[in-house]
Specification:
- The chain is mainly alpha-helical.
- 49% of the residues lie in helices and 10% in strands.
- It is built from 13 helices and 7 strands.
- The chain has helices at residues 20-24, 66-72, 79-88, 92-104, 115-124, 130-144, 158-170, 177-189, 195-200, 203-210, 218-228, 239-249, 260-275, and strands spanning 8-11, 32-34, 38-43, 46-51, 58-61, 147-149, 152-153.
- The chain has a 3-stranded antiparallel β-sheet. It has a two-stranded antiparallel sheet with strand order 1-5. A two-stranded antiparallel sheet has the order 6-7.
- Helix 3 runs antiparallel to helix 4.
- It is globular, with a radius of gyration of 19 Å.
- The mean pLDDT is 97.
- It binds a DNA duplex through residues 27-28, 122-123, 125-133, 135-136, 173-178, 180, 214-220, 223, 236-241, 268, 272.
Length: 280
Amino acid sequence: MILTKDAVKLTLPDSDVFSPDKSFNCGQCFRFEQKADSWQGVVKNTLLVFPKNQEKGFVTGFGADEGVIANFLDTKTSYTEIGKNILSSFSGADRELLEKAALVSQGMRILRQDFWEALISFIISQNNNIPRIKKNVQTICEKFGERISDSLYAFPTPEALLFAGKTGLDECRLGFRTKYILDAAEKIVSGEICEEELFEKSTEEAKQTLKTIHGVGEKVASCVLLYGLGRHSAVPVDVWMKKIFRKYFNKDTVDLGEWGGIAQQYLFFLERFIIEGKKV
DNA sequence: GACCAGGTATTGC
DNA sequence: GCAATACATGGT
């Protein structure tokens, strides 16, 4: 492992545990790769490396300065505290389920991903499986992203994807999602939608704005809010969450509260990766 | 070779 | 409004 920058070691609140395995392999991001002893991925045009073995109470990473890593892993947030908050609004069997989900997910952190990358990644995710989502994202990076070094590429800019057009994107085998990606790129490049304005809006208003993009509905908009805009209350409801609501709560929808997005990720992780034992 | 995949837009009642 | 259906492609 060749590392050009010094290790960054950041303190986590309440002696939180950081699990790279759970954080990078829970379906929230599609461009981090598992190596023998680490997880690696491109963030802000640099390669970030996180050793699998992490010390309790800290985050150790390589490749960028403290600010970038602190922001990406949201190191100011106490997941110990959030866990307590989530449980406080449930009782009985519901509480036991959330306790179990939080326990198996211990160490998972919701990443503060790049807004534009999250938007395109989750547009690609619709009616798609995770291995193919990763492949599609990888392909657009290799074809249209800035080359950082050998076989390392940045996520392509909105301008680059717009310039690629239908012809270019169709070569990436994105299927019906090509037109959705182009509409997103158009709205960003034209300024019709801008990240800074979304950031100022309430979560509900930001969601409505995101849904003006062709191909962005409730679920994708919620993913962008949660993973790309740091809105921990946003709850993406996909087929797995619908199944969980019916199976355990005997309801079609469940209010997961102020930290619903994180509760959702815990439940999703428990059901899909632990109970159903799905890989990837 | 079906059936399905971290959905959404469109259509039909 | 709300339940079907098409959508591109390839993983399982």
